[in-house]
Amino acid sequence: MCGIIGIVGVTPVSGRLVDSLRRLEYRGYDSAGIAGLVGGRIERRRAEGKLRNLETLLIEDPLTATTGIGHTRWATHGAPSVRNAHPQVAGRVAVVHNGIIENFAALKAQLIGQGRRFESDTDTEVVAHLIDRELERGLEPLPAFKAALDQLSGAYALAVLIQGEDSQVMGARRGSPLVVGEGQGEMFIGTDALGLGPFTNRIIHLDDGDFVAIDHQRARIFDRAGVSVNRAMRVVPAASALVEKGNYRHFMEKEIHDQPDACQHTLSAYIDPITSTVSSPGVDFSAIDRLQIVACGTASYAGMIARYLFESLAGLPTDVEIASEFRYREPALRPGALALAISQSGETADTLAALRWCKDRGIMTAALVNSPESTMAREVDVVFPTHAGPEIGVASTKAFTSQVAALTALAIAAARQRGRIDAAEEARLAGVLLEAPRLIAEAILDDGWILPVAQEIAKARDVLYLGRGAMFPLALEGALKLKEISYIHAEGYAAGELKHGPIALVDEATPIIVIAPSDALFDKTSSNMSEVIARGGRVVLITDNQGAGHAPEGVNVVIAPACDPLIAPLVFAVPIQVIAYQVAVLKGADVDQPRNLAKSVTVE
Ligand code: AGP
Known about the structure:
The protein is an alpha/beta fold. It is 35% helix and 23% strand.
């Protein structure tokens, strides 16, 4: 979703605004723009499409401002166009915004009634008009900003520039992320520490509801009520170095290769390799009578995998629900339950809303997040970290496997705490789980099977993915990966469901990708493959060596390393990621920034 940057600088800022926006590209966007104060007046440059279009514009028509704001826009209200790109300007005010102003229609009608003219279809333009109206009424910039904020409902992170205020940028956050960066005689605000990485690693995370005014030397921060507050500054480790692609063609490719390390680091937060014990810091699962997982997209598939583990290993009743639907069914949760959000970003609006719904009802909350400073991490009772490092590719890979690794560890800890396994079994399972990084690395290295399969899949219009048990969520994940980055229609099904409908789709043109390690369920899934082949369907079987030996005649095989069923979701995730990646590359798709998608979905 939209990315924001604001700089009060001592040298011209347009190049740095664009540099920061480039680091925020991963969030997804369809237009970009910057504005600065030149000779006391607001000047802006905006372009539809990629940042290079904005850069070309800036070469033709440079912006010399030393104070400015910038934005990458992921369209919500109004089509992607120059007119709707941010900054949005009204009178003396320029605004960039991430989020949705839910009451914008009523505000816009009121402002039009007062004679104000609108140029765009955005919800954001009302913010600029509201601030400008308060300035016209005689308020100083900061009180005018606060007065405007008090009229908004919905979610926002904002950066605001006011004509005549050459050394000030104001910002605010409610429901969308915004941080402050401290420089040397310069100050910054931005969506996240990565965006500010080239300028500073001294970061202040604002609380929800805070607003701020930065100048050359300081940040004045106020809470929702307008009371001046101090928020802690933290030095963020090497933020600027962590987002390089290195020798890889795409971030997704790099992040697939990062997975052994990402899982290793994540597991070290839960498993003590010396004592072979597994912990769940902050939660005693023997005191929990129900686990409610909420998440979106790929994270929800990690949750589905976890359900198998928490129920079979720990005997803990577990539900998984897509966060965007969770609140609408009025879940019958009682104290004693633990609500666990799974989220790479820790900012996904629906997941956050589901967590808050639980919190308001006195349910204990936890979040498994990859961003320790995210809103979710700051709001829950217990944070479970993943240590995948920044994930830039829109298609989640290392965040997913790190989530599954952490959840597997937590399920083992829960099993021990609930008396379902003894210390020896805990140690055995911990040992199995610690094997995962090595086997993931093997799966990545042994990808020679995949290119011929990818060449076939790239020609298809529709693809089906099938799996049983914990391979069913992987089938859903495989289908999501493929459609996200290659735009091929794909669906995942539980293999047993095939005969209840999807088999009608089987024909020569629809490849079926079956994920089936040689486990207790293999023979049943093998029967499903035979049913497909008997109807002229083409099957790609992802299995291990033993499974390949028992595969029905006529299937195309991709071999993954043999492993214990406990870690099969981790090891078998690799070939489905690599298939999607290679198909997208063959199709020449924009792998890291697929059309219409945002990395962090901060609107509901
Ligand atoms: C995964 O490839 C997706 N891009 C998407 O489904 C993602 O997992 C989802 O939006 C949840 O994001 P989060 O983990 O940051 O909450």
